Amino acid sequence: MEDLKQYEEKMEKSIANLQSELATIRAGRANPHILDKITVDYYGTPSTIQQVANVTVPEARMIQIQPWEQSLIKEIEKAIMTSDIGITPTNDGKCVRLVFPELTEERRKELAKDVKKKGEGAKVAVRNIRRDANDAVKKQSKANEISEDEVKQLEDKIQKLTDKYVADIEDIIESKSKDILTI
Known about the structure:
This protein is α+β, with helices and mostly antiparallel strands and 183 residues long. 58% of the residues lie in helices and 15% in strands. It has helices spanning 5-23, 49-52, 72-82, 105-142, 148-181; strands at 39-42, 45-48, 53-59, 62-67, 90-91, 96-99. The longest helix has 38 residues, at 105-142. The termini are far apart. The relative contact order is 0.16.
């Protein structure tokens, strides 16, 4: 059990997961990552929009999607309409455009709450990993594989790891909330 690496890696994954979830929340500016979870049917294969089109941000509040094949325009439009991003796409026959409206104060507050909720979920995940690590230490202690001093040291290390990752999550939430709430 002297190696806490596996638990640290799990905590890292929790943070990476939080960051990828937060990347899909729009903060007034156009961010191509909001399209990451949207898939289109490309000859029977579900593919992300980035795999079948060129995605650019020509202006601060606009995403332009230029499919490699014209036939995909309707598919891309339909996929965006059925997604939960809340923006109606427009197309000019060559490309699909998403124009992001200015966020209202109310919507900004909702998004900030959503960020906090996702952050709390990540903290819970980190704390669950801490519990698993502590359980593994206790099991080793019961089996007389490690001394009580080692148990105490390991539990301290596990707590320090947990504190570090919870603080990282706090920083990520703070940064994203500030990004959303400032105009």
